[in-house]
Write a structure and sequence with these properties.
seven-stranded mixed sheet; 17 strands; binds pyridoxal-5'-phosphate
Length: 407
């Protein structure tokens, strides 16, 4: 198929609302780190469905759990107890700071619930005026009306006025400014340990520790958004473990379901104390199918040595990318990230780089700050990592020699 494939910006059938600029290709099936078209073309997937397919495509164990569950029970709503929901909540608590978990279906919902939880916490403490949340420029917490208001990015807010109030947006790594906006109306600080959509910007350890201290000193809740960084992507189950701090509240989604939609808000019992019956809910949240898969994902992540190997593979990928940087200094500005959450900041257009990779049948995804993300499944092999580096090399050579076909 090679260069005949008419890629990029062709819309899908008009029956699908045109909110995405999609690449004009469809995949029929997947195997681990590979996506395969009907005609048998194989693409090396270093997007993992935007940090979702933790164990790649059609993982045998996850598929079995899902299919076994599908033959028993799909959905009962939260009118009744759900066995695997309780099992997944216990597993998540066992392996984290959390003592209480609420299940939903996506990252935006999890972040939104985290904000509600923080407001409710202060309400419960007799301080309902404490409802403002400090958030950071360049952050991304999802596409609900409230969550688009958290980053102040016109790309997400244009045309959706009025903006939801209650967020004080500050630049990151500016402790002095965070301090100056804290008032007796502040409820919480919300931040991603690594800004994913914002361009794989790793928040320095001292910043996160400083935020923890500021929250403690001012009675605020620290909310971490680990929607993209969680589920082992950083080489730890949750990225904040690298910093040795604990949040009060954390939003997770994406990789925790390995491809099955699930989100969760994890919190200390104290932070969650206001979330009593009637305060929040979700029809689908934590249903038997989703939580059966979620349990299997967490169990596989916590298997001995698995996360250690993610760290090792993260280092391998980074080394190969740093080599590429020295071979293509006119293209690569910086290599950054944590574990297998990798970003390559480019000196050329990220869209061109993603397109050049596509021609080499390597799937990558752009992020803010002109960064190309490389986020393979966590069970990617060393051979596949080397293969991806080879494809990147050829893609960059194509760009340098002006052999990148027009869109
Ligand atoms: N938070 C972070 C850090 C994310 O990266 C994303 C999605 O990219 C979200 C929240 C929103 O997640 P979802 O698209 O599942 O609503």
């Amino acid at each position: 198929m090679g260069e005949q494939v008419g890629i990029l910006v062709d819309g899908p059938h008009p029956a699908v609302m045109g909110t995405y600029q999609r690449t004009n290709i469809m995949f029929e099936r997947g195997e681990g780190a590979w996506l395969i078209t009907k005609s048998g073309d194989r693409y090396l997937d270093f997007t993992s469905g935007v940090a979702v397919n933790t164990f790649g495509h059609a993982d045998y164990d996850l598929a079995k759990v899902l299919s076994d569950q599908a033959h028993k029970l799909w959905h009962t709503s939260n009118l009744y107890r759900v066995e695997d929901q309780e099992r997944l909540a216990k597993l998540l608590c066992k392996h984290s700071f959390a003592e209480s978990v609420f299940f939903c279906n996506s990252g935006a919902e999890a972040c939104e619930c985290a904000v509600k939880l923080a407001r409710r916490y202060h309400f419960e403490n007799g301080a309902p005026q404490r409802n403002r949340i400090i958030t950071f420029e360049g952050s991304f917490h999802g596409r609900t009306l409230a969550m688009i208001a958290t980053g102040g990015n016109p790309k997400y807010t244009n045309g959706f006025a009025p903006n939801v109030p209650g967020f004080d947006i500050v630049p990151f790594a500016r402790h002095d400014i965070v301090k100056s906006v804290i008032s007796d109306e502040t409820a919480a600080v919300m931040i991603e340990p690594v800004m994913g959509e914002g361009g794989i910007r790793v928040i320095p350890k001292q910043c996160l520790r400083g935020l923890r201290e500021l929250c403690d000193a001012n009675g605020l809740l620290l909310i971490l958004d680990e929607v993209q960084t969680g589920a082992g992507r950083s080489g730890r189950l949750f990225a904040h473990e690298w910093v040795e701090i604990q949040p009060d509240v954390m939003a997770v989604a994406k990789g925790i379901g390995g491809g099955f939609p699930i989100g969760a808000v994890m919190a200390t019992a104290d932070a969650a104390k206001g979330m009593v019956p009637g305060t929040h809910g979700s029809t689908f949240g934590g249903n038997p199918l989703a939580t059966a898969v979620g349990c299997a994902v967490v169990e596989k992540l916590m298997a001995p040595e698995f996360l250690k190997d993610v760290c090792r593979k993260g280092v391998l990928l980074k080394q190969l990318l740093v080599d590429l940087k020295s071979r293509f200094p006119c293209i690569v500005e910086e290599v950054r990230g944590l574990g297998l959450l990798t970003g390559v900041k480019l000196k050329i257009s990220v869209a061109d780089a993603v397109r050049a990779c596509f021609y080499e049948k390597l799937l990558t995804v752009s992020a803010g700050d002109n960064v190309m993300r490389l986020i393979p499944p966590l069970n990617v092999t060393d051979v596949e990592i080397s293969d991806a580096a080879g494809r990147l090399d050829r893609a960059f050579a194509r760009i340098v020699s002006h052999r990148l076909p027009r869109k």
